[in-house]
Amino acid sequence: SQKIEQNSEALNIQEGKTATLTCNYTNYSPAYLQWYRQDPGRGPVFLLLIRENEKEKRKERLKVTFDTTLKQSLFHITASQPADSATYLCAPLVYSGNTPLVFGKGTRLSVIA
Amino acid sequence: NAGVTQTPKFQVLKTGQSMTLQCAQDMNHNSMYWYRQDPGMGLRLIYYSASEGTTDKGEVPNGYNVSRLNKREFSLRLESAAPSQTSVYFCASSEGRQRGYNEQFFGPGTRLTVL
Questions:
Q1: Which chain A positions have a beta carbon within 8 Å of B54's beta carbon?
Q2: What is the Cα Rg of chain B in Å?
Q3: For residue B87, how many C-alpha atoms fall within 13 Å in the half-sphere facing its CB?
Q4: Does residue A60 come out as left (phi exceeding 0), alpha (psi in the -120 to 50 range) or beta?
Q5: Angle at B4 between CA B1 and CA B8, to 5 degrees
Q6: Which of B33, B104, B109 minimises the CB distance to A46?
Q7: pLDDT value of residue A52
Q8: B43 CB-side CA count, 13 A
Q9: What does the pLDDT read at residue B44?
C-alpha cells in the first residue's frame, strides 16, 4: 500500500536557521507533491506544489525539492522565524486513477527565539 | 469570499445518535472532500466528490454517508455515531476535476466528540 513518512513528529530549531523537513514515500509514483501548513485548531493551508519534472520550487523563504529517484521531497524554510512554528504536511499525489489522496502525518516545527 | 465554511464548529453526540456535518464553498470549485484528522493518524480521506452529482469512497468511508447537494454544498452524515468517530472533520474543495491536481482549500473544521 502507499505509504508516506515525514521524518519526525517534531523539530525544534533556533530562529534564523534553516529548517529542513523530509517527506519520503513508497509504492508511489507521484506526478505532483504538495506541501501544506497547519496551525493549531485550524485547517491546512496550501503552500507549494511541485511537479515530478521539477527538481526545485521556491516561494519567498520556502524551497521544495523533489527527487523521484530517492522518492523524497525536502521542504526548507530559510531564516526561520517564530511565526513559522506550525505543523507541515506533505501530500504526494498520483495524477490519475482511483488512488485516494494521502497526506503525511506532518512534522511539528517549533522555531525558538 | 468566505472560502470553505463548515457547521457546526463543535458537537457532542451520544453513541447511536445521528447528525449531519455541513460544508459549503463559494469558489465555484468542482471537487469537494471530507477528511478526518486524529492524533498520530494524520488526515484521512473519508469521501470525495469530483463533480456535482458524483461521490466516491476514500480511505475510511465506513460509518459515513455523503451528499453532494449542489456544486456549493457537500454534507457528511453519521447515521449511528460511535466513539471511534470522535475526531476533527475537515471539508476541502479544489478547482479541478482531477483529484489532487489542484491545491485544496480547507474549512476550519468540526470537532466532534461521541460519548
A1: none
A2: 13
A3: 23
A4: left
A5: 120
A6: B104
A7: 85
A8: 30
A9: 92
